Amino acid sequence: MTDTPNVLEVENLRKSYGKTQALKGVTFSMGRAEIVGLLGPNGAGKSTLFQIAAGLFAPDGGSVSVFGLDYRGHAAEILKRLGVVFQARAIDLDMTVQANLAFHGALFGLAGGRLKTRIGEVTDLLEIGDLLKKPVRNLSGGNQRRVEVARALLNAPDLLLMDEPSTGLDPVTREMLVQHMQIVRREHGTSILWATHLVEELENADRVILMVAGEIVHTGSPAELMASSGTDNLTAAYISITGHQPEPAART
User: Fold this and answer.
1) CATH number for region 1-81+160-222+234-252
2) Is the pTM of this model over 0.90?
């Protein structure tokens, strides 16, 4: 591991699609074992920021440093230490859960007993060990999502990027996911960047970055956001600071 104090550094990041400015000079950083939430309404720029941080898009301006490295020239080194949960489905529906995880693990050089152990660990954590032999297509949307989170954890990433990870999850499973990510952070020192539009998912985050229309409008711990807005809960703070009503969770 590098000696850089920050696992992710974003500096004056800008990105446009035609005349639409998705990101307008976004700057922030993340330290080791820190859970940082990107919170904002749809269209705030969260997914664009996420995709640039994951190395999928190049910014129009500004810079992204992951583990003190730039994607240009160091992509392979960064990606082997990165875990990603995309907003859209990104697993093979016709393969079994075990086959999906084994294939992904092999991409990170996992094989034999080590691969079997890691598959057991992540599926136990997410309580899907009994689904290993089932084709992903036959699973509920919520369980498919759990498989995607398990896949992202296989390589024991130093940085986990999650874009709307609770899509398709019922409230109980969503809360379970929040709790399990705290375990991952505590036991493995994993830093987690969690993009969401659901306020309640970030109540125990270390910091919350509020984004509106491609810009950061406020950042701080949940307690700091509540104090600065004179409110007693994160939802009220979000409404006060952004002027937006929080969006409801999609029905499963």
Assistant:
1) 3.40.50.300
2) yes
